[in-house]
Design brief:
It is found in: Cell outer membrane. The chain has 295 residues and is mainly β. The chain is 12% helix and 62% strand.
Amino acid sequence: MRRLVLAAAMLGTVSAANAADMPDLPVLRGGFTDGLSKTSRNWDGFYAGGHFGYTSDSSDFGQSVVGLTNYIFRDSVLQQPTSTWSLLSKNTAQSTNFGGFVGRNWQWYDAVLGLEGTYTYFNNLKTASTGSNALDIINPPGDTVPPGAFNHWNVTLTGSATAQVKDMVTLRGRMGWDGGDFMPYIFGGAAIGRMDVSRTVSSNVTLRTDTTTIDGFGNTVIVPGTTNPVPAQSQTQGQHKTNAFVAGWTAGIGLEYCLWNGLFARVEYEYVQFSPIMNTSVTLNNAHVGLGYKF
């Protein structure tokens, strides 16, 4: 009996020694090492930075001088037919830009929501268009003529318009995704631009009244009348606004990359559409490269 107890004791000692020599695997402790879990970057907090880039401006001047021609031809038979003329055309310009941004991020797991304000200055971003048009308007609506007569309103319009975007501010909401050191995001919001806008138009109007008659052979013959100037509708009108504030909206996409601790770099594309000012519509396509710091 004593031998049996002694053998059992020796066996238990050997088992304990073998167990002590086994590696301490984390799975045996009910946990995992940090290397087996997803690494997440903390994007939450306030941040600020600066950016620079390139801008393409597309301005539509098609209806820019309509307000002026409507004034020149007000209360006349020429207002309605000339209001549909596209005297000027679209034009584009390119420029560099630079500015700054400040914002706040809120992070829930992989989702990052934010609110950001930006300022962008444009280096001589100016578009312009000129044009002219001439048309013979015969018996326009509302014109009173005798039977067999034809009023020929010969209208010549010459115009020009310019639009220069100086700078702008935006207030944008952002939605991003935490990809570790990377954060892709989309944004959208309101924009206010500061512009210099001008437009000018000159009109020259003459009137000739032709009549018809029947000759001795029964043929209808047109008898040209005398061409006379119309001073009331032959004039020049212009309008200019300096430092005009124009509202609009913005949207785009971007990508931020954490360089070190709170320091990050960003690239983004931004589309901006401003409300028409003096019948001129301005659209911007901005490309930005920036550097910022999250506090």
